[in-house]
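Sorry, any thoughts here?
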Amino acid sequence: MTSVQIDVAQNELNVAPLIPPVTQNAVGLTGGINTTVSQIDAISPTSLEPLKVFNTVVSAFTNVHPYTQMALGVLTSAAQVCLLVGKGSHLTLSYQLIIAQANLDTSVSGLLEKIRSVYKFLLEDDTQANLDTTKDTLARIALVTINSAQFINDYSEIKSLWSRLGKNIASETQIVVNDYNKTLDELMHQYHDRAVCDSDTNVYRVLEDLNLDGMSHAGDAGLNPTKKCLDGTRTEILKEIVDWIHDPDVNAPRIFWLHGQAGKGKSAIAHTIALWLKNVGGFGSCFCFARDRHGEHREEKMLSTIARDLANQDFTFRRALAGVFASNRSLIATPDIIQQWEKLFLVPLSQMSKGRVRSMVMVIDALDESGPESSRSHILSILASPQVANLPFNVRILVTSRPFPDIQAELNSARHVKSVSLDDVPIAFTERDIRLFVSIELGDFRDIEEAEIKQIAQKADGLFEWARLACMFIRSNTTGETVKDRFNKCIVRASGQGKILLDDMYGAILETAVSRRPKALARFRSVMGQILYTLEPLSMDALNVLRNCFSHYKDHYDSRSGDYFVGGPDIQTDLALASLRVLHGGLCFNICGLENSYLLNSEVPDLAKRVKANIPSHLAYSCQFWAKHLQATKFNPVLAWHVQDIMRNEKMLFWFEALSLLGVLSDARAALLSAGRWLQGQKGYEDVAALARDGVKFIHNFHSGPSASTPHLYISALPFTPDNSLLCMALRERFTCIARVAEGHCGEWPVAWDVFQGHTGPVSSVAFSHDGTRIVSGSDDNTVRVWDADRGVPIGSPLQGHTRGVRSIAFSPDGTRIVSGSFDYTVRVWDADKGVQIGSPLQGHTEWVHSVAFSPDGTRIVSCSEKTVRVWDAQKGVQIGSPLQGHTKLVDSAAFSSDGTRIVSGSWDRTVRIWDADRGVQIGSPLQGHTDSVTSVAFSSDGTRIVSGSHDKTVRVWDANRGVQINSPLKGHTQFVTSVAFSPNGTRIVSGSYDNTVRVWDAGRGVQIGSPLQGHTEWVLSVAFSPDGTRIVSGSHDCTVRVWDADRDLWIGSPLKGHTDGIRSVAFSPDGIRIVTGSFDNTVRVWDADRGVQIGSPLQGHTEWVLSVAFSPDGTRIVSGSHDKTMRVWDADKGVQIGSPLQGHTDSVTSVAFSSDGTRIVSGSHDKTVRVWDANRGVQINSPLKGHTQFVTSVTFSPDGTRIVSGSSDSTLRVWDADKGVQIGNPLKCDLHVVRSVVFSPDGTKIVSGSNDRRVRVWDADRGMQIGSSLEGHTHCVHSVAFSPDGTKIVSGSEDKTVRVWDAHRGVQIGSPLQGHTDRVTSVAFSPDGTRIVSSSYDQTVRVWDVDRDVYIDSPLKGHIHLANSVAFFPDDTRVMSGPNDKTVGSWDTDKSAQIGSPLQGHTDSVTSVAFSPDGTKIVSGSSDETVRVWDTERGVQIGSPLQGHTECVHSVAFSPDGTRIVSGSFDNTVRVWDAVKGVQIGSPLQGHTEWVHSVAFSPDGTRIVSGSFDYTVRVWDADRGVQIGSPLKGHTQGVTLVAFSPDGTRIVSGSEDKTVRVWDAHRGVQIGSPLQGHTDIVTSVAFSPDGTRIVSSSEDNTMRVWDADKGVQIGNPIQGHIDWVHSVAFSPDGTRIVSGSHDATVRVWDADWGGQIGSPLKGHAWPVTSVAFSPDGTRIVSGSCDETVRIWDADSLQISSLLKGNSDVVTSVAFSHSSTQSYMMHLPIRFSSVSSHALDDREQGFSCHEEQDFHQCVRLHEDGWIKGPHGQLLLWVPHGWRVPFYSMWTRLVIPRGCVELDLSGMVHGKKWHECFQS
């Protein structure tokens, strides 16, 4: 810059006024700032002229030090923050904005003036003359200036933050500005004096408390200042990089790739740039890879670490990043580098303010040291992508690496990458820099002078690493050698390049350090083996010393290192064994002594210190890497024993605990999968492998909570572990003081495992890699994607190349390649690690390629298309031989046999064909049987069987050698079968179908295993087993890939179908291999219990229903009893009747059984008798056993044959002496209910019965009395009961369609009901070995169940089975009454969540309305049966006879205020008044209405009654005289839907279908004012405010309106928010709020004064909300819904308070009783169960809420799963799958039990949490 230019600028500066008056423009820009506080001068554009001039001046400084140049660049950016620069797409913060911001505070204006003075100082000649000599001070000036400018730019955000934090903005601003001003003054003074002093440099940034906890990042991967270049060296390359960083050209390359061979100094340059950038206040991040840190998977954390660094420097970036995490919390720890790039980098970058014009510089050092090529393939794909090319112009990425081929291939081809090789740097420059380095390193030795330094520099041949090693070698203190001797050793070695020269140097150092004696070499190899093969540096002192010397030498320890070679499999075994032994000795419970379970890990102040102290480096290493070392070894029994030692007890949890504290709990999943694979198939370790798989499921489902707070691994995750899981069974006894899932627990792990999302089109094909660690998927979106099967995340970018949808994919056997077939007619082969296509596409097909597969040796590929199958050479990419021809239509699937000698294909010509893979000819005839297109085929692993799937909806199995079908087709799918596969061991088959399901089949028995796997929302197109057979992967038209647990099953096989009518009776044969059934189709059928197929033809002979069947003890005969009054005995093998029917009964034979020796048969009949028969001669023995007074329903012999028990409709059980034919003792009575089934226990000491009262009872067979309480749970008649063979369990089948299993000793239900039948269950029985249950049903099916699969205790309490129209609370809040369409009134205990007694039965049609009397002692109900009934609420019985008189449905009932009278309105057009005490009608019906009476109500004083009718009128009646008062209130033009009195009784309000609300004078009978008009649809509900001044109405127009009751005008605008009809409205008792219920299934609360919604909608109902009301104290809201439930809500916190289930149809009306408990919200125990005894024991810890205000924020389940206390304490974490539905602590009642409920009574928490473990 010329002196003239500077002078001109200086003159402009001198004449510029510093603080001119506020101008009109400034006032406009500040947007109306209060003039009383804005008497502040603005700053004119000329006053900032030095900043403009500086930008021009800097461009003239071309020969300064690169560090100086970087500082000047940042100062330029700081100037740009304050000025308007550029006019294009890269506008920075405008001058107008800086003026607007500056004028808000005089202090900020002063800071801007200080910045102006800095730039004026920098423009002085003396300053410019000393830029290089004072570059460190200049750097600090740049740092403070850029941060001062950013502070001004961010000022509005800073003020907003301070305001939210309650800080004094003026004082805070002054502190910051004073600090910056002071520091800048000191730095300018230092610069002027050429002094370098330490001045504090504070940086103020807006970094709000936005939660980034848990964000994945790599520790110690950042800047290392010790690695920087020696000052004065590498200046040329450093200057080139700095120039590139500050290049203003918008087209400048975004990436600078610095490469060169090892030892060239790349990392020193990278760290120098990063250090300079940090010193001058630059914006960026430094990330370094290291070859000794491969175990940390830094490649998965690179971008997340960089994003975190950037977020800590810029508030906009941080806020945007926090927003990303808020929308998808899973991203916070995602290892998916693609998602990190797109979500954690590009999204925040796009939201950064344009005022932030500083260059953003990211340094990525040593990319070549990331690991194998696969570790960086996705990073390279990002760096080479167009997205990087299109980054903002000020973003720069510096990458250093060796020029490895994969890196060269990606970066050299990208136009936005500037490639610079250090190998091309002139040797003179490098030698100069090495001389400087050596002179400093060795300059203090007298023997090393300039000549020696020059020799070393020349010998280095440009390798800084060689020079460093040489200096280290020369400086070493070797006995008997001088410095000169060591120098000569270096110099005399042969010169060379690259590896040879470095090897030579390394060898010299090793020879000096390690003797070649065998013992010394062995010790060296042992120690170095640990160093080199550990996956991260160990922190033991001895190893640290060696690591510091040798950690860079791993390349040298290969075959080139001779005697010093380190390697071999033994090292991995040693490391695995050592790690497992460390775990054995080092793991323990609460290893870090955490005192409190209420805190997140991030809230424990000294957690890092505790972890370091209690989890030493060797234990931390072992926790993280034992499985990786294990995977690298072959199976070893010693290792397996140590794995077993960790898996089989609580040490597995202790290991999880340590991982949680280390922040890597999710890594346990991959480790356990790896261990499971290592143990797979090893005899004697099957249970350990199963435990490993269980651990995987534990981590998959539960890792989130324990990762955040370690104690909750035990007190939160463990309670939700399924009862059937191996983990639970192994650990439950050691952890007793934890919560228990009392209701809604899962017996098994969720079957659905992972859902992989990313494809944008249907997923047509999926496959596992050979080792099970990866999944590949092909899609109609033209891409192939590879997924991490263990962690559920994509690996790298999609494989792109196909121009149309991908139809089929497969991994090569070694997992290195992927083959894909596409609709673009090509087959392509891909490198599975690099994600790139190998060679050209395989072309030859002329139509879509439908299927591809590798041969077992990976040398060939088979593909099919059109009518042909083609085989390809997988290496050369050429077709082998001619196409395989024979199919006459499209070939849809092809596969190799396991030995590679055969190929199987399936075609749309409905055939399966087998081909000789070598000769290319068909083997044998086509396999025929399918009746539609064959879509999928596969060989079993042993090659003996073929499975095929077809459009005929079946799966078929074929003998691959004989070419014949094996067994019957596998049927169950309801749409096309698209894909089939065998499990690895050949025992199971998986199939996918257009019916959206995946099904698993028993390949041997040909039956379905368990239920269909459901979750996909569209067609399932592809399925496959994992290599270990534990998982299934499926791809679907819904664009997702799902992984399933392959170990789950519920019932065994498909239902046994064949009967053409309901099945009445079922039994196992004694050997368990057959099942016999009797049916209403008049037949008996025998079934194969294993294969699920019928044996022979039906046994026919009975002429009416078969009601009972049984096998003889030896299994050779079957006896059947029928409605035709006969019994028949059948030959079980031949299927023919033996002899004549047994005749004698005079009515239906309901039950038959053999005696234990098979010589006698007992029968029971509707003729009320029991008869005994000679089973061989077919004649009756003795006389009938008489005594029952009603039908005999069930009979059986005792096990010893001496007694008979019978059950009857006369509600009794009777025991008979089988020999004498007489009754033993008195009848066993059963509460007036029909006894449906009876049976002896195996030891004959007990009898179990099932009856119509839905109960199962156990009786003492000797004493004739009931044992314990009845077994309750069924919701309808119990039709059949049976004991297990060992007598420990009871099974029952019921009309409620369920089968239930009970613990015979404890009297509790075991597990969930067995559901699947679609009609009543008629008969149940155990198999002889007790492992299975068989059930029959009216749904015409027989189902076989696995007894041991479902063992958790759970009992849904069900009650009503029809529509419930009305519910009401009992005044003391202990009961709820409900009126359903099942003709009953139900009474429910709110504490026990149980129905009180039986339903109030009597009504013979739907109950339409219920109400409590004011004192709560009575209930009145109205019904469609035309009656009104009054009930005693205490005794649950009807009071007197029904109130009869109405001739149509009674639609509305109400008590008078004094409770002495009842009013009812009916569809018979009348109103009737009843004496509530005497139960008689008072006077005549109130007649006058000509249509249905829809609504009735008493006046507040009880003297009048108002009624509304569909005759369009409202009528008022004298309640005492029973006469109409005045004329009908007319005006409505359509039906009146609702009427109500005002609180003072002077007015009546009515709502109508005519869309109006009308107010009437209750005394004069005239309308007050005009109709209240505004609604545009039917008025559904009206109500007065408590003070009578306002009316609220709701309508089917989706709105509510509030009206002035006196003026008759609408108050304010309509209340809007609901998106469907509003059915019901009500005022709160104090009149301040309105509650509404809508057809949109929500309840909403509104401010009654201004009409705004309070809080969020109350969501929970699944169907329209039909009725709402406030409780009298205003603390609760009740709502009724078409979803058959009533819900109670806390009116203040707006949280769900109760869920009342039990109704089976629409709930149309709800109301609170008048005396709701006022103290409801006080001293509420912490309870998440409907059982009060399940409340939390909190006597000592003070967790409970005792203040009313606490309840607004009290204990509840948050969206993230945490149950927190009033002050944020963590009580419990609920896993995702258990959160809906969940019992809230506000819930008072659940009818029936349908939520997840917790028993917290035994749970320790807070400071006692550690007592959960019983050591």
User: Anything to note?
Assistant: The mean pLDDT is 78.
